[in-house]
Write a sequence for this structure.
């Protein structure tokens, strides 16, 4: 059984295993930097499951920053009927691509 964990970053939760590459909300780190996520909510591996209340004490998810990227463009449009007001806008979320290197318990 491969070990996995659920951790929280940027207000979102992610289920990961060692070697996974994923995009999370932007964190302030350079490419190639090692980062650790201490908010591990659940750990599963080697025949045991640890559920945090709210976090598993002493557990961290270690990862390497691969790149700072942008998500897809989202188009928005606002208008007020009969008032000749129209406004179009776009938004691209900043994301950080990471590769999980270790899950430490």
């Amino acid at each position: 059984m491969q070990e996995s964990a659920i951790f929280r970053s940027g207000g979102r939760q992610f289920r990961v295993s060692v070697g996974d590459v994923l995009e999370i909300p932007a964190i302030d780190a350079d490419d190639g930097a090692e980062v650790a996520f201490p908010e591990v909510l659940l750990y599963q591996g080697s025949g045991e499951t640890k559920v945090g209340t709210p976090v598993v004490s002493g557990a961290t998810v270690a990862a390497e920053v691969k790149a700072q990227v942008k998500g897809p463009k989202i188009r928005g449009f606002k208008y007020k009927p009969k008032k000749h007001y129209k406004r179009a806008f776009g938004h691209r979320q900043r994301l950080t691509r990471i590769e999980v290197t270790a899950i430490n318990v």
The CA atoms of residues 5 and 16 lie 6 Å apart.
